[in-house]
């Protein structure tokens, strides 16, 4: 019995020592410094919501068209097109020869008219001299009154035939000149459906000319918004994925389409190689300036259909829901949800979560809030 008590006492002592050792080990682990992985935090840069002067804009869509397009056709018919001297895309000057029609019998008609004119001039001269002699004998008994009247009438008729012969020469000269098709103004050839050798009828289209090479954008706007537009306002359009093109409002349509309830704003465009008549383009009309709160687009997180930013409080970030507005360049308008001069995370917001501990990167010269104008 005594031996069992000794064994029980020894086992109790051993268990007590083991418990004391385990407790000491646990306290030591609790008081040791955290591992590098536990102490790590994301490094972020901060930026500030700043106030900027942005223009108010109206977005619109529409088509690009020629300012004025002239249909160049034949002014005489029944002639063959012998030469075409320009092609689509060529720039031409006013009066430049564009096409040549075969003169056919027009030259012969003109020569015949000129011969008839010479004959009429001779006849008129002879009749004129006879009339002068009759006038000289007027009041004498040598020439009767009837003969005098006949001589004067013959002279007047000869002058009329002379005038008619001159008119025929002028008409035949004009018809021959019409075989040369010339540019009515400076511009660019936009269409050329005619082909050499074709028989051209009077009024048939040979080519089309964009007058002065000017293009305009026909912007469609709802009726109530037309009142905010005025001639001279600046417009920027983006035809497709090309670089934006600037223009100026030239005039506003005085009426609204009863079907679409929209009106047309006519915008003169600056010359640009990437703009073509017939293109569809989106654009914006720049109205008055106003102050907006902006942030870089990289500071905004789009998640679940909403927009968020992460503002910095001490060494933590807090997720904040915001309402966005217009975009210009790499900045976006913040309409609601954020106060001015608020420090937020500049980029990398997709890796952040509400309440996450972060470490600020070294401040840059542009990190302070400022008010700028665009």
Run of helices and strands: HHEEEEEEEHHEEEEEEEEEEEEEEEE
What oligomeric assembly is this protein in?
single chain
Terminal CA distance reads 100 Å
Fraction of residues in β-strands? 35-45%
Structural class: alpha+beta
Biggest sheet descriptor:
6 strands, antiparallel, barrel
Whole-number average pLDDT? 82
Outline the fold blueprint:
Layout: H1 2-31, H2 36-39, E1 42-44, E2 46-48, E3 50-66, E4 69-73, E5 79-84, E6 91-92, E7 97-101, H3 106-136, H4 145-177, E8 180-182, E9 187-191, E10 199-200, E11 205-211, E12 215-222, E13 234-238, E14 245-252, E15 262-269, E16 280-296, E17 301-303, E18 306-313, E19 316-328, E20 331-336, E21 343-345, E22 358-360, E23 372-373
Parallel strand pairs: 1-22, 3-23
Antiparallel strand pairs: 2-21, 3-12, 3-16, 4-11, 5-7, 5-10, 6-9, 7-8, 9-11, 12-15, 13-14, 13-16, 14-15, 16-20, 17-18, 18-19, 19-20
């Amino acid at each position: 019995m005594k031996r069992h008590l000794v064994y029980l006492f020894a086992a109790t002592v051993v268990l007590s020592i083991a418990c004391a050792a385990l407790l000491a080990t646990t306290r030591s682990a609790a008081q040791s410094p955290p591992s590098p992985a536990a102490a790590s935090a994301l490094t972020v840069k901060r930026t500030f919501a700043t106030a900027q002067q942005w223009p108010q804009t109206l977005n619109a869509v529409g088509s690009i068209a020629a300012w004025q397009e002239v249909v160049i056709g034949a002014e005489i018919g029944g002639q063959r097109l012998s030469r075409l001297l320009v092609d689509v895309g060529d720039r031409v000057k006013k009066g430049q020869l564009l096409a040549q029609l075969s003169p056919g019998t027009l030259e012969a008609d003109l020569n015949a008219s000129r011969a008839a004119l010479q004959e009429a001039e001779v006849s008129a001269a002879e009749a004129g001299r006879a009339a002068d002699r009759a006038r000289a004998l007027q009041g004498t008994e040598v020439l009767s009154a009837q003969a005098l009247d006949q001589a004067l009438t013959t002279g007047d008729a000869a002058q009329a035939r002379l005038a008619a012969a001159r008119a025929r020469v002028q008409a035949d000269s004009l018809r021959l000149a019409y075989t040369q098709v010339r540019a009515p103004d400076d511009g660019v050839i936009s269409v050329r459906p005619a082909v050499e050798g074709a028989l051209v009828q009077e009024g048939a289209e040979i080519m089309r000319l964009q007058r002065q090479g000017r293009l305009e954008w026909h912007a469609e706007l709802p009726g109530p918004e037309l009142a905010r537009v005025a001639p001279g306002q600046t417009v920027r359009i983006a035809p497709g994925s090309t670089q934006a093109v600037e223009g100026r409002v030239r005039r506003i349509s005085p009426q609204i389409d009863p079907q679409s309830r929209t009106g047309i704003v006519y915008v003169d465009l600056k010359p640009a190689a990437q703009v073509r008549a017939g293109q569809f383009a989106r654009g914006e009309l720049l109205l008055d300036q106003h102050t907006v709160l902006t942030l870089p687009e990289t500071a905004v997180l789009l998640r679940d259909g909403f927009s968020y930013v992460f503002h910095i409080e001490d060494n933590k970030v807090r997720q904040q829901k915001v309402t966005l507005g217009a975009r210009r360049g790499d900045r976006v308008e913040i309409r609601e949800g954020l106060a001015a001069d608020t420090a937020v995370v500049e980029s990398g917001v997709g890796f952040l979560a509400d309440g996450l501990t972060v470490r600020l990167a070294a401040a840059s010269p542009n990190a302070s809030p400022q008010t700028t104008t665009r």
